[in-house]
Fold these 4 entries.
Entry 1:
Amino acid sequence: MRAVWSAARAAVRRRRLQTFVIWLVTLTSTGAIVVALGLVDSASAPFDRAFAKERGPHVVAAFDPAKVSDARLRQAARGPGVEAVAGPFAQVAVDLPAEGNRELTGAVTIVGRPGPGGPVDRVDLWAGRWATRPGEVVLNRQPDWSAGALGERIRLPSGTVLTIVGYGSEMSRTADAWVAPAQAAALRPTATQMLFRFTDASSQNRLRATLSTVTSGLPEDALTASQTYLTLKEQIGATARAYAQYLMAFGVLGVVVAVLIVANVVSGAVISGFRHIGILKALGFTPGQVVAVYLTMVSVPAVVGCALGTLVGNLLARPFLRFVFTGPDAGLLHRSVGIAPWVNAVALLGMPAVCLAAALVPASRAHRLSAARAISAGTAPRAGRALGLQRALAGTRLPRSVSLGVGLPFARPGRSGLTLAAVVLGVATVTFATGLATTMTRFGESGRDYDVTVYVGRVSHGTVVEAEHGDRRLDAMLRALPGAGGVTARGDVEAHIAGSVQPVMFEGRRGDLPRLGDVLTGGRWNHGRGEVTASSAFLRRHGLRVGDRFVVEKGERRERVTVVGETMETDGRLLVGDWSTFTALAAGERPIAYHVKLRDGADPAAYARAARALDPGLDPEVNGANGGAETIIGSATLLTAMLAVVAALGVFNTVLLDTRDRRRVLGMLKSIGMTPRQVTVMTVTSMGVLGVIGSLAGVPLGIAGYDLVVPRMADAVDIVLPAAMTDVWRAGGLALPALSGLAIALLGAYLPARGAARLTVAEALHNE
């Protein structure tokens, strides 16, 4: 093995280009795979670990206390399929005003619960103690929340005052706050909460079927709302799954390109090193040792590249994972989000194994050669396999350098096939990335119907500065500023769907731009009271469709609404209605922001400065770019550029090997009058043929990849992309992918072609 290592180390130093190509392609592929697999794992694993630790409920159900008693619910919970149950707990929906309540405001669900433990939904009481007496409350807060507000008081609209005695956290969000059961009964409960764990929780259908069995003996309409843990899991991991889709595509492409290039490099090293193989065998190397030399030559840069790629992937993954987990309750998972050990194991062991497997087939050729045959094969000139084709091309009107170049790839069909496959994948990557970038650009620009958002209320040195002027006055003042084209007032309030424990964000709009950049994907826009448009994510998570009706509650106010339209919005809590519906739920609420559309040519920054001068309580903000779309476009562009460079390096390696194999032929061509320029044209043309073929095959492959990945990305975040965003394959959009194959081939071929052109006749014909 000492001799094998010495020979392999010398081969690594001698073949610096091939070593660099293997190192770069394994580093790139491994880094992408680590991030992609980390996202796939983190889309579910952290949730599963945290959920299992606290024995979270598979189903949170709310029942009407006027239709079913607690005793009937306890009896029903003993039905088949129920593993464990907690409850019944009294549930109260209240609307807490901001005045006088710093710790808890808006639409709030309060549940009466005797303690933090139990068989289902164990609350982590991380500060203070549990509420055991009337007048005490425990808030549901994440552990990184400051616990300095213990002892603060919360005043309910009924006049009841609750003192904060503790902070707890549980990721299922079964309540915003907990009180003692006696206190909950005094608050006039609006629902009864039951928390179920079922023996079979493998799918939504199984959960719904078991819940239906449990409630089958209860009065009709006793069950007012329910939510499964799978809905919450989908919500928290949605963004991670969306990013994982396209990163996994790049990772797989990188692995395949790595296999092709490693096989090409080793095959070329074996073919061009026949004489070296013969000398090694003549010196006493066994066939197995010769194969080991070539496998070691590949494994050294592959292992180094995989190790660095794993390190880079881990460094990039943690901030990236924290970025994608930005939805409601995602902060509960930040402590457990990271790259799992199995991901690093796959990267560190799997990628070198793939490289060695790719190298084994061409290296086995060195195993079969005898010493005499290897030495003679390395010194004797070889007849070209493309002579017949080149003779046929010579009869055309093509310049001789071009006709010779067109025939060259057919002289080494195996090597040309591997190079062509790398070019095809490079073109497919460019095509996929072009379509993805176009869609994400259109997605990011879909919210640009307004230019400036003027928020009401400004934070200065930790203090909120309130606006001095009233709603209508501010509206009129903003319309009167130079450049204003249209103004829309927007108000937001937290509310609940009747019986549900999960809050919704009800948004009311008034003014000139009721859409505010929303893209309608179904139904129509809301026009009057009682009509709402909802995001695709909202409808999916609540099992609703366009045309369905339900009741929205805010405190003691109730409004029956009808879904008339579906919008492309990623917020799964968002409902949008007109101002009359909004004020029916939240009388006296003021707009929290005004969205301003400017006239053509107006300067958004100048308008923002003018708006800021109107009132010290205004905080204008120029509409910026979509951060998520920019992240996807930027990372896809970087990965595409890296894979295109790697594919070009594969072409570079092929041309270099071809030039070395054909040194004697080049010498003879130069001796009969071929100029350096003609040598360059011949060599570049040989790869240009592969580039053209690669474009013809790679563009459809990239389009197929786009059609596979982009819909999965949209499904992961529960949105429907309209045709205007996915109709990206026009003639102009295909120009860059169509030319990318030729560009990759010419870029990789030019430098070694120039090197071949500079060879003198004596250097080319010299065999020793």
Entry 2:
Amino acid sequence: MVDRGASALSLPDDWPAHPDPILALNRMGSFDWDLDSGLFHMDARAHEVFDVRPDEFDDNPMSLAVRFPRAEAHRLDALVAQAIKDGSENYGTYFRLRCRDGTLRWTHTQGYIRRDGTGRPRRIIGIVRDATQEMGELEARREQAAQDEVRRRQTNVVQLTTAALAHARTVQDVIDVLKDTHGLTHLGATSLVMGLVEAGRIRLIAEGPAGSFVPGTDITRIDEPYPMSEAVRTLTPRFIESPEEFADRYPILWPHITGLNITSAAYLPLIAEARPIGAMGLLYSDRRGFTPEDRNVLIALGSSIAQSLQRAMLYEQQKDLATGLQQAMLPRTIPSVPGADVAVRYRAAGAEGSLPRDIGGDWYDLIPLPGGTPSGGGRVGAVIGDVQGHDTHAAAVMGQLRIVLRAYAAEGHTPATVMARASVFLHELDTDRFATCLYAEADLATGVVQVVRAGHIDPLVRHADGSCRRVTVEGGLPLGLSAEFGQLDYPVATLELDPGGTLLLCTDGLVEQPGVDLDEGMQTLTDLIAVGPADVWELADRLIDVAEERAGDDDVALLLLRRRALDTPQSGGRLQQHVAPGDPEALTGARHMIRAAVGAWGARERSDEIELVADELITNALMHTEGAAIVTLRVLTGTDRRMRVEVEDSSSALPRRREAGESGVSGRGLLLVDLLSDVWGVEARGGGKCVWSEFVVGGADLS
């Protein structure tokens, strides 16, 4: 190299006859090259550097040619010529000399060009020194720097791969990270294979690139002569450093992968908790052999990958368990209900990539109820609920609560009684969980729906014309809390579901959105239903798709019940209620049912009379018999339109009129029934009887 910045030294004309002692102390030799005469004078130390004796050198530069490899001589000549030509004052460079024993020695020279007044070069005065140690140290530093860079890159590989694997939740996520183009680049490999240990065999779960699959290796035994089998069997890596070694060690496998141009391979056991869970193979096409550093890095990577893989496998096991538990707690099938189309859906929170904790307490149920008309429509109870929490305990509580709700409803209790008893059950279950719930009891022949709500969101109704509205239901406290605070009153709301209308019950996961209040969320859902498909199953799919797109953190349970349009005219409406003895809530529920139904069926002008007579008949049945009473309210059509109240009990004893004294508190019941009813009577029913009363009512025929 040419040093253009240094100034020429102020040296005596006879230099190097008396070299500076500093040069000698630094083991430097000096020379003086007279460009006019061509003579090249050197001191004794310079002779040592060039490895020539004084009697072998005649001051002719060409005599030194034997000491210069040809390439070095050309480079040095060009360097000096260029320095003279461009007016430089000095030059310097490292070059190699060939010693008399044939070895090469690194040498350094620095020359200073002396010019006359016209700028013409006259002399070159300089120094030479043995630079072998210096260049050796420089080379050592370069090698160290290269090794440091390799270590840095290797550490970076571990860090990058580990960071990417930290986000992998499933086994496929782990595979995707490793098979990703950047992942393989970080690993330096061109192809990857991976297998999991299952029941003494290795099942291949990843292979690449496309078309590299070896037939018969999708499942292999651990004792077979394959490199992955060896890695698992011995718990030690298998490093294959050349194609020849691969062909020699694994003659069964090698013929199948010769087309991949494999030059080396590393097969690593994937060990977690001191046991092999699988093995991974990295195949290379651009390298031979593995340094100790390479092996250490790959072993470290194998450990990191094994931990991620075990975590992913555990996650999938927990998710399968959670999903299985959730599905076991939900109804396996939804019963067919005459007069209705029913669609149910369930979506676990964060279904893609969520943690297994997302098993929740959301549930739905559909309960066939006694009564209804076989051809025109059944009676059915629809339930939607959500137990507090997202864990297996919430799911377990949900399963128990679903069972008791179904039992209470099937026994014929009123909706309010069903909810109150479920709250008491949850309170006595010795759990700190509460639950929200909505229970709707529908008579599909008449379209009358009775709804009670325990801290849950309101139901929605979509009409046959596609319009949708939120049904505001006065609710009670959530189940468990209402019993704890002694507030077991659950008001009953009654609505009419016209033929073609759909009742929608859902949990709040379908409504709630971050930053959006509940009312706004309900309105958004209402608008979505209004423009959704008319088909109840397609509508359910659409709503769940929306929940998937939002990827919310809460479960979604959904139940849609559509009342079918009746194929043939029916003979009026019919509702039925079971009233147990000693159950004032059931009696209150029956009164609510009668009042609501009378109003819904257009007989509001006689509602007080009908309710009073029904209350009297129910009270008599409960007081004078030991069993329960079954209350039936129906509309009869004919020459006139009548509403009929029937109270059935298990006693065969007929009611009789009694005259009440002036101070009597009983004996007036049948007198009241006779006074208010248009007609009444008693019928024998099996082992019991039915007392009935009819009222002529106005309004349009329900048929």
Entry 3:
Amino acid sequence: MVDRGASALSLPDDWPAQPDPILALNRMGSFDWDLDTGLMQMDAQAHAVLDLRADEYDDHPETLAKRVPPDESRRLDTAVSQALKGGSENYGAYFRIRRRDGTLRWTHTQGYIRRDDTGRPRRIIGIIRDATQELGESDARLHQAAQDGARGQQASVVELTTAALAHARTVQDVIDVLKDTHGVTHLGATSLVVGLVEAGRIRLVAEGPVGSFVPGTRVTRIDEPYPMSEAVRTLGPRFIESPEEFAERYPALWPHLTDLNITSAAYLPLIVQARPIGAMGLLYSDRRGFTPEERDILVALGSSIAQSMQRAMFYEQEMDLAQGLQQAMLPRTIPSVPGADVAVRYRAATVGGSVGRDIGGDWYDLIPLPGGRVGAVIGDVQGHDTHAAAVMGQLRIVLRAYAAEGHTPAAVMARASVFLHELDTDRSATCLYAEADLTTGVLQMVRAGHIDPLVRHTDGTCRRATVPGGLPLGLSAEFGRLDYPVATLELDPGDTLLLCTDGLVEQPGADLDDGMRTLTALVATGPADVRDLADRLIDVAAERGGDDDVALLLLRRRGEGPHSGRRLRRHVAPGDPAALTEARHMIRISVGAWGAGDRADEIELVADELITNALMHTEGSAVVTLRVLTGSGRRLRVEVEDSSSALPRRRDAGESGVSGRGLLLVDELTDVWGVEARGGGKAVWCEFVVPGHD
């Protein structure tokens, strides 16, 4: 059987042999009513409340007729029937019983209805207690027809409040409903006070009317002489019917309320599963006393509020756990990156529904790589739940590991896709990975079903950087399409790269391209500082709302002195001697102009060797780039790109003694050199330390 009710009394397996000690201490009996068989078991304390011997009751409710007068039985049956048919989770009622000596005594019962997954009531578990002293015989006789209209109005307020509470998700939502125009103030109360039990103490979460806060009562012990503490301690309501009674029973509290014109009050325990989770106080300024019907209504209202409050507390606890899980999966800190300013932001969506729907699988990461490079990642696992967050955490870790191992961007993405596929989950993920060399500004990017990045230039313009993409992670492995094209672009000093998830782009009623254009304009007009820009973007996302998470990463390449950004590039096609001559001339003139004339011959010779090798050993063109770098010493860097992925290798010199000495020459004349994968090809680069003046 599946319990659809939010809660019910939790009874031990050997019940009723071992009654709950809290109930026993408060002289409360308990019962378990199986609606399928019609049998109702009661513990010994319940027998005592009803003045029954064990041998006088055979577990059939009809047997109680000797103790419950017909009128009271019909009223009690009506209350139970309405709760069962109306879909309520609980009910409460005061009724009279006739003891064996013939006297009538007031009794109160509170039942918790358990239903199966179809909503059918299957079981009622509840408590029963003597309420004679609470009500008093004089009040018990006040069944006046004139109050029928008032009872109907009050019952309507209970129904409205209960319906509104059904949509409350957090503790504050519950309090807001109670303070709303359809809340308990329509019962005539001036205001309310609410406290929740935490670690054996009561913490106020709603403090009553303005100016009524009593010093020292923000957090109180359960054993202190306050009405809310008594309601929690005894699991019973406390009705205070006059100012004189208030002053007599609670002398420590009353002096702080004398200016509020309080004439009566009702303090109701919030009980769930026979355990107090808090208490609620209703303060009145225009009435004295409570009729039995009014007490019934207030107790029923307290039961409904208790259920809603527990749901809200469970929701907040589970959300704390879920959000803690997601935060644990995201990087705790972002490493500082020499040569760059970085800002990251994450915003969870606000999605109605079950707990855990407010988190998802969006993530960012920044990965330090060998050679002063850095990897920037943005991604989004399908779904909005804790499963998506868990998959995200695993995927982030393995992608980080693959990148740190030195794999090319395309290999990193392909391996991550295989991992997600082998994880045997039903989730896919989009991702964009950018590997940046901040000394040169060169970025190599791969995209797996993700949206394109944006680049903002120093002049304030912003553009969408088109990156050829492959299938989302997981799907590419499933369909055997693990090819991820690599796009190369360059960030000049002062340029900013934006990676984000689609929650920042998608807008209701607009397509993705419109969203990208809107975001491009927003970035172009945003603050220059990446942290301020990140705050601005996340604020816009919060204002817009939406049902998707937002993750973003901003990386701005810093300017590094007067020589940074000096760059010349020349395209050299095969069989074009004029282009080769122009490239040589460009190198010689630029090297002299940039204050490196002492090494002009070496630089020109090495560049010529690299260009020639590219034209001879590949089928395409060569692109030569010359730039000045600063930082740990001023350097001049030469790069030659081609379309072949084959790495250069040392070869023995031919018979002529000329061919085969290219790499030996490069190694001898340069201060450092290397090879980088660039898309489907490569770049051979070398650097020369040059004087630090023009």
Entry 4:
Amino acid sequence: MSVAETTETRPPSEAEPDRPGPAGTTAARHGWRGKLAAVAAVLGGTALIAAHASLYGHWLIDDAAITFAYSRNVADGFGPVLQPGASPVEGYSNPTWMILLALGKLVGLFDHGTLFGVNDQILFPKGLALACCAGVLVLFYFGAKTLSRRPALITFVAGASLAAIPSFVIWCFSGLENSFYALTVAALAVLILRAVQSGRLLGNQVALGTGLIAMLAALTRPDGIIYAGAYPIVVALFLKRELLGRSIRAVVVSVAGFAVPYGAYVIFRWFEFGRLVPNTAVAKGQEPPTLDDLARPGEIVSYVGWLVVAVAVACLVMLLVRPSRLRTGLIALLVPFGLTVVAYIVLEFDWMGQLRFATPVWTLGAFGGAIVVVEALAMARLRGRIVLACLLVVALVSSVSGLYDQGKSYRANVKTAMCIVAERDAQAINGFADILKLPDTAQVGLIDLGGTSLGSRIRVLDLAGLGDKPIADYLHRADMQGLRDYVFTQAKPELITFIGSWITTLQFNQDPRFERDYATIFLNPRIGDMTVDSRNWVSYHVRRDLVDDAKLAQLQAYAQKTLPPILELNKTAGLRGCANIQPGMKVAA
């Protein structure tokens, strides 16, 4: 039984008498020309994405290095901990990405030194991201084959669209999990699309496959759990009374495919970390969405341009009003796309900027947009094609101009870079620890966790809560007094460093115990330039009972010699790379 018989009121021959069968019915489709076009589309789109990614140099966001640290310790046999010997805390929220990086370390491609003369802590995550982007385009091609005689064109247009969106490129190549997340969402959407078009929607393999892919998405980002609903929703949309029992069984298989492995990880999380959710989720304090959050999709539309979105929507409507297999496929594709938008609405505002949580929206939006534009142009008569083409040109010119400004702006002011944190904080902390002759079990309280957790030889105490359970609980309750009590009376870190306004956010500057218990080693004050301040507004402090006047003067002299050159470089070289970050790295005095 075909899916058309279970989902359409008319079979394809009646609903679409003037439309040829789906791509693959002609000899050229199976010949070398079709294969060459497919390869060219995938490689061309991937090359465009890579070219855009190269504009951001060796930059990786510092939060990505938190996952790097866990990957290192898992691969080295220490378990999922931030540093060897530390207590297990789930300071990451992307287990699948962490495992991929750990596998890279095990095979010698990550965290070993250099690849082609580049720090492999930078090159491997970016190379893995590029492979994921290529995988997304391969999936697009096989999805488009079921809908169009022009799958290669659709694939290239979708790839070019993704390459033009700074938000997509920035976050896929930031060292974070976005690229693999995009791959899982694309895989889910394409599997559902192909199943609907081939009449295999209720098959056990499809049902199980959707559940497993949704599980991968949920273990790549916590909000990925929403995609467990994609298959049940599609089945409900195409439900036929005579297939009710079979539909229920298929949904149960899909839910089980998701719930069993995901539930196993939640059980592991509870026994290993003592929480049912990642520690990061507790620290960040995800709140239920409000009515105001319903307007958040407007951020996405504004980012790419209202006109280009309006043209794509018009093309979609044009295709949906006509019963066809294409319409059926578009309806199926709209379900996971709608879930990407819902997930974006639910998530809290992200300080990193550039719509970091919108990656799945861009992924399926580019694919769906390419389909509807290419097919609308093919379906329209000559006059309609001319009008639509003119509208597209105007919309694209307007959109590209805005996207160019977005990318240029972020390139000039990238958020906290892993290499800057490692060179600025990890090296300074190691130098201070050596002067003080601190054991490796000593602690440094800090804010920027990633690069320092990779490079510090002493334990890190995450004052931002991602890697520390008690502090995460205090931040979740907005209990700054309790947080400071914990730091001053229990943790008592030997060193503390603050960046930006965190000293006032956590109200340490208002607590007399901070001045009483800690002496300042180095303070680089705010100068009023947001870009420079985000990298250089930093201070370092040492517990007073560890130093006398001579020792404090020695620490200050070391800081004055080693830190200013790094801070000066930070003003203009935010995209730079760095040497492989290993525990104990420091600047020679």
